[in-house]
Amino acid sequence: MGEKPEGAELDEQGLGWKNTQGKGNAEDTVSSGIEGAWTTNPTQWDNGYFYLLFNYEWELQKSPAGAWQWEPVNIKEEDKPKDAHETGNRNNPIMTDADMAMIKDPEYRKISERFYKDPAYFEQVFAKAWFKLTQRDLGPKSRYLGADVPSENLIWQDVVPEVDYSLSNLEINELKDKLINSGLSRTELINTAWDSARTYRGSDFRGGANGARIRLAPQKDREGNEPDRLQKVLSKLTEIQSSLSKKVSFADLIVLGGSAAIEQAAKDAGIAIEVPFSPGRGDATEAMTDAESFSDLEPLHDGFRNWLKKHYDVQPEELLLDQTQLLGLTAPEMTVLMGGMRVLGTNYGDSEHGVFTNKKEY
């Protein structure tokens, strides 16, 4: 093939290997070495893949390029795929080790047999998998547009029930008083609100305070959420919620508790502020939560609370920048949050490192 792409002439760089074999394409294409089609009719949607897997014995052969691949034994001529470039020719279909696993692994084989025997079921499962693959980063269903939005609620869409209540300014202020006088410290209220909100990911719109999933597994047990401290706060918020004369979601209580604590800290420092609060968050249930996928989203660092689960090749300050962009924060917002959190005594555990004040919680 000649020189490697990076060592080729300047006008050929960036174009990959220069193929001088025959036409350089079609039947003369140079590939990974795996050569062949997986089904009899590669351009059609059918069940030919499973038909070939279950109706033929397969043996290892070398492709024309010298790669090992699986080919069928004594295949019927009509089951061979037509050559993509040479009219009239048919070639053996091929499979890889991964394809062989579909019939050799006992558990995979059960799934494959069902797909083979029930094409309609396979079509349905494939459609759902394809939809999830292409829509996963769009966030909750409430963000979808158009006539093709599924009517069913899918667990991977992080379902959150819609709220059916509103709160007046008077009711909000009464709730703030209950939260501030609940016996919980300002730090405990702020940390819980922050830990709930910091899970938000602008990349796929997952996480965040809506749904109050911090009270569910796996979030309630995460090291970064200080489970013992968190459980104390959740127990008190449950007590407050059950004492209310009207319905208020746990998610709204968590956020309002943090807001009220910040206002109180500013008041004690001689500054009157009001943290804007908009009610309307719902509470997700365990049945609405895909705990397994949420386990993979566990925060392993939080520069705002000065916490790092362990040391990584990536430096903590770089992890902070990554967290900031996932949260959708600007550089000024990151700066003011860093300073604000560090003077409110919100460090992880009892660490004093990086606290920017002698008067914590003010």
Instruction: Indicate the radius of gyration in whole angstroms.
Output: 29 Å
**Secondary-structure arrangement, i.e. CATH architecture of the domain at 169-343:** Orthogonal Bundle
User: Helix- and strand-based class?
Assistant: mainly alpha
Share of residues in strands: under 5%
Number of strands: 4
The overall pLDDT average reads: 93
Helical stretch count?
Answer: 11
List the strand order in the largest sheet: 1-2
CATH structural class of the domain at 169-343: Mainly Alpha
Helix content: 25-40%
Low-confidence stretches: none
Q: How would you characterize the overall build of this protein?
A:
The chain has 362 residues and is mainly alpha-helical. Among the domains are: 118-157, no CATH class; 169-343, Orthogonal Bundle (Peroxidase, domain 1), CATH 1.10.520. The protein is 37% helix and 4% strand. The chain is built from eleven helices and four strands; from the N terminus they run αββααααααααββαα. It has helices spanning 48-55, 97-104, 106-117, 119-135, 169-180, 186-197, 227-243, 250-268, 291-295, 316-327, 331-343, and strands spanning 58-62, 68-72, 301-302, 307-308. The strands form two sheets. A two-stranded antiparallel sheet has the order 1-2. It has a two-stranded antiparallel sheet with strand order 3-4. Helix 2 crosses helix 3 (106-117) and helix 6 crosses helix 8 (250-268). The longest helix has 19 residues, at 250-268. The protein is elongated.
